[in-house]
Amino acid sequence: MAATTDDTDNAEHTDAPVPAPAPPRRRGGKIALAVSVFGELLITAGLVLGLFVVYSLWWTNVVADRHADRQGDKVRDNWAGGDSGPGSLDTLDGIGFLHVPAMRNGEVLVEKGTSTKILNDGVAGYYTDPVKATLPTSGKKGNFTLAAHRDGHGAKFHNIDKLEKGDPIVFETKDDWYVYKVFAVLPETSKYNVEVLGAVPEESGTKKAGHYITLTTCTPVYTSRYRYVVWGELERVQKVDADRTPPKELD
Fold it and tell me: Which residues cross the membrane (predicted)?
């Protein structure tokens, strides 16, 4: 019996299943780690880029509009105060307001100069270089040339492509409304083409001296590769009344 028991015990021990060896632990390779890090960097870069776009296309508009509103209030306060001496027009605060119904951008303060610093304040600027604008208040024939941003920093000329022949452009000063009518549009030209700013802008199709206004901005939208140009010609000058009643074109 003892032998039988021992044999049985030995058999049981011999036939017992041997546990399979544990699979080797997988180690993350250098490639997998690099891919993981690269993915995190892409996500971070995407967030940064998104924030930059929000800043460029939205927040700069908010800041610029606030500044332009403050400057515009100063101009109107000066007008109400009777500051109308010979040198009062050409001030740092602004010389008047541009109204372009087709662009649906309200009134746009106009200041002297077209530098980035000036236009970033959410205004339109009249050219002093490379061709000097002829201000309508001078009464002289010439070209009242203006520029403004098309995106960011107020984007005052964002909808310039909505302008068509026959549309009104109105410039408001303390004493007068200058009413222009669009007669030519140039959707794209070199940003170095200064001929469009000439006293007689022949690229508009005109060959004679007159009282013109020219609006310029960058194109395509969100780039500065080319320039978009709109020309208008003065139709009439309307005196400002006590109520500052706008001309019919702005009704």
Answer: 31-58
**Dist. CA 27–CA 98, nearest whole Å:** 68
Instruction: Enter the DSSP assignment of 55.
Output: I
- What pTM value is reported for the model? 0.78
Length of the chain measured in residues: 251
Count of domains forming the chain: 1
How far is the C-alpha of 246 from the C-alpha of 124, rounded, in Å? Answer: 20
pLDDT value at 3 more than 50? no
Contacts of 119 (CB under 8 A, 6+ apart): 125, 147, 148, 149, 153
142 falls within a domain: yes
Catalytic: 13?
no
Residue whose tokens read 């780039």: 223
Mean pLDDT to the nearest integer, 65-91: 77
- Classify residue 45: in a domain, yes or no: no
Q: Does a structural domain hold residue 156?
A: yes
Active-site annotation holder among 99, 158, 211, 218: 218
Q: Confidence band (pLDDT; 50, 70, 90) for 92?
A: low
Q: Which CATH number belongs to the domain containing residue 158 in this structure?
A: 2.40.260.10
Q: Tell me, what's the pLDDT at 185?
A: 98
Catalytic residue among 13, 99, 149, 153: 149
- For residue 194, give its domain range: 53-250
Q: What is the pLDDT of residues 149-165, one digit of tens each?
A: 999 999 999 999 999 99
- Is the residue at 41 inside a domain? no
